[in-house]
Amino acid sequence: MDVPGILTRSVDDAVVILNALAGHDPKDSTTVFEPFKPCALPDVASIKGLKIGIPQEYHAPGLSSDMKDSWQHVADIVENAGATVKRVSLPHTALSIVCYHVLCACEVASNMARYDGLEYGHRAKDESSTESLYAASRHEAFNNVVRGRILAGNYFLLKQNYDRYYVQAQRVRRLISQDFWNTFRSGIDILLTPTVLGDAPSYRWFSKADNRTRTQEQDVFTQPANMAGIPAISLPVALSSNGLPLGLQLLGQPFKEQQLLTAAKAIEQLVNFRALDFDKLLYCD
Asked: How far apart are the first and last CA of the chain?
């Protein structure tokens, strides 16, 4: 679940970074051993002949009307460009966000156990004892969000809770992954979904609830890819009624990044989203 995210100005730029990052790392046990074949995209990408799935469960509560319209608009565009668009079902989508937060907390608790202030990361000045150095380094380096996840993760991993939370979450994760595999086996090549519920939220709206609630709301569409272990890419397709970008997400099959990125570039070219003038947005009167 802890993977690097590539942020670029275009799909072509994302390919350049992906080709540099991808491949087996002998010091990272989470990387696959299969050799990576660098991606190379055509100058003019085509989506003709692909089967695009529209998951019905992604019509989630809180999805903005702007996002719904943009989703439908892009689906129409790719269909007119020669792709086949079909409604599909991922029935365990609603369970994904809860499953993700249980497993994420367990992973954070496990990963953060190695941070002691000696080998890497922040080191406190309290060196009165090894135990004091460990405790002070972790206290100073971890904010409340990280501490909360460590506490929750350790709780889920307790012997008396292990089967009830961790094992059960892994079973649900398998069901979520199976939903995607069933969809791909039915002939669907790529899924097209919203990235988040709408455009970038205002601070006033975001602060009306706690950080955990808001992040859960915004993660509802993106974390199933982590649960299923599949590649995904988000790209801007339109502006909302507030003048802010709206993004759609493409989810592909494992180890078929070439197909996914080619489709993303095709949509990028078909939509022709105008680059934003950030100076004008930031410094306008």
From this structure: 42
User: Pairing relation of β-strands 84-88 and 51-55?
Assistant: parallel
Tokens, residue 253? 């099959």
- In this predicted model, what pLDDT tens digit does every residue of 35-54 receive, in sequence order? 889 999 999 999 999 999 99
Q: Which is nearest to 247 in space by CA: 271, 227, 229, 223?
A: 271
CB-based contacts of 262, cutoff 8 Å, min separation 6: 41, 42, 45, 46, 47
The residues near 161 (Cβ < 8 Å, ≥ 6 apart) are 155
* CA–CA dist 38, 201 (Å, integer): 36
Express each pLDDT in 140-187 by its tens digit: 988 888 888 999 999 999 999 999 999 999 999 999 999 999 999 999
Task: Give the residues across from 138 on adjacent strands.
Answer: none
Q: Are 227 and 176 in contact, with CB atoms under 8 Å apart?
A: yes
Q: Kindly report the backbone phi and psi dihedral angles of residue 246, in degrees, each rounded to the nearest multiple of 5, phi listed first.
A: -115, 135
Residues 265, 45 contacting (CB under 8 angstroms): yes
